[in-house]
Amino acid sequence: MMTLASLSILNSTFASEIAQCDACPARSRHRVLFTVGYLDFCSHHYKKFEVALTSQGLGVINRE
């Protein structure tokens, strides 16, 4: 289960790491947080699944 401390760590590491989208080889721009982990998405796939992801996830971290 995700705790506030683990969410903070995920937020800071996502900003500095180079992550790949979980749906294609593009660079990840959005990290969707769930109670048991997270999924990374490029902008294209995030927009495609945004409604489902935001309704099921705890939150979204967007890379600037």
How is this fold's topology laid out?
Blueprint: H1 4-16, E1 30-34, E2 37-41, H2 43-56, E3 59-62
Antiparallel strand pairs: 1-2, 1-3
How is this structure best described in words?
This protein is of the alpha+beta class. The protein has one domain (4-62). 42% of the residues lie in helices and 22% in strands. The chain has helices at residues 4-16, 43-56, and strands at 30-34, 37-41, 59-62.
> Helix- and strand-based class?
alpha+beta
Strand order of the largest sheet: 2-1-3
Q: How many runs of DSSP E, i.e. beta strands? A: 3
* Uncertain ranges: none
* pLDDT averaged residue by residue: 81
Shape type: globular
Share in β-strands: 15-25%
Mind summarizing the main beta sheet? 3 strands, antiparallel
Spatial separation of the terminal alpha carbons:
27 Å
Number of domains: 1
Number of helices: 2
Q: Roughly how many Å is the radius of gyration?
A: 11 Å
Order of helices and strands: HEEHE
Helix content: 40-55%
What is the gist of this entry?
This protein has 64 residues and is an alpha+beta fold. The chain has 2 helices and 3 strands; from the N terminus they run αββαβ.
Which short descriptors sum up this protein?
single chain; alpha+beta; globular; 64 residues; three-stranded antiparallel sheet
